[in-house]
């Protein structure tokens, strides 16, 4: 696995606070992702967003999306729905009980940490639209050629 994927989220810096527009208290819009150093073997991209410091669950999944075309700029504000036609028919599985991006929204006064993980894959993934994070991780495991993480906080 070539792990040196480099990426940025527009408005989100490692270890810093999520902008309100990307949270459940704002517009709840997914951020734009800028990717660099993509492998020439890349065939698709998957993204997972987890609350990684949830007091009850430890890690709580907020978003799963896969079969994103290989792009160096993944647009923000990805619309809700199982299939995203505007993004090459990418599939949004079930994260936070929904087929959509669900940004940070911890209880007021409680800071949680949220981590985006981007996986660059050597194939597209055949998986039911109602799949959850555990199903996606199992399906992509043999196909990951690059991976990167970015963590932000929100309270």
Could you tell me the CATH topology label. Answer: Phosphatidylethanolamine-binding Protein
Number of strands: 9
Order of helices and strands: EEEEEEEEHE
Number of domains: 1
Task: Write down the overall geometry.
Answer: globular
- Main beta sheet: strand number and arrangement? 6 strands, antiparallel
DSSP helical segment count? 1
Compact description:
InterPro entries: PEBP, PEBP-like_sf, YbhB_YbcL/LppC-like. The protein is mainly β. Helices cover 5% and strands 37% of the residues.
Give a verbal description of the structure.
With 155 residues, the chain is mainly beta. It has one domain (6-150): Alpha-Beta Complex (Phosphatidylethanolamine-binding Protein). It is built from one helix and nine strands. A six-stranded antiparallel sheet has the order 6-7-4-3-8-9, covered by helices on one side. Strands 1-2-5 form a three-stranded antiparallel sheet, with no helix packed on it. The protein is globular and about 45 Å long. It starts with 5 loop residues before the first strand and ends with a strand. The mean pLDDT is 93.
């Amino acid at each position: 696995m070539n792990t040196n994927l480099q990426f940025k989220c527009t408005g989100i810096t490692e270890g810093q606070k999520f902008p309100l527009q990307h949270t459940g208290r704002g517009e709840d819009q997914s951020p734009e992702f800028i990717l660099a150093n993509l492998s020439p073997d890349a065939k698709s991209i998957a993204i997972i967003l987890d609350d990684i410091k949830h007091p009850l669950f430890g890690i709580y999944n907020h978003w799963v999306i896969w079969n994103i075309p290989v792009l160096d700029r993944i647009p923000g504000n990805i619309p809700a729905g199982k299939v995203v036609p505007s993004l090459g028919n990418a599939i949004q599985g079930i994260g936070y009980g929904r087929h959509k991006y669900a940004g940070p929204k911890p209880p007021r006064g409680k800071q949680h940490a949220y981590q985006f993980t981007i996986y660059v894959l050597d194939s597209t993934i055949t998986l039911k639209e109602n799949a959850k994070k555990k199903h996606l991780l199992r399906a992509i495991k043999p196909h990951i050629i690059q991976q990167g993480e970015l963590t932000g906080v929100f309270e």
